[in-house]
Predict the 3D structure of the following.
Amino acid sequence: MIKTKKVESSLALQLVGVILFLLAIVCFFFIPPFGVIIGLVVMVLAGRLGYSQKKVWKCVNCGYFFERA
């Protein structure tokens, strides 16, 4: 068994993330005082949608894996 990382991605969530990012840019420029704060928070959250890495143990022989703590 070896330590590795498994990447999980979802194209639908990545598309939602891109749309949210574009909406955050609109908020950033068109709602001056509060739009900057809201826009930055939404941009950070949108960047993390649809992509995650999980720590796993992977068997060298068969390729089976399970999550580790």
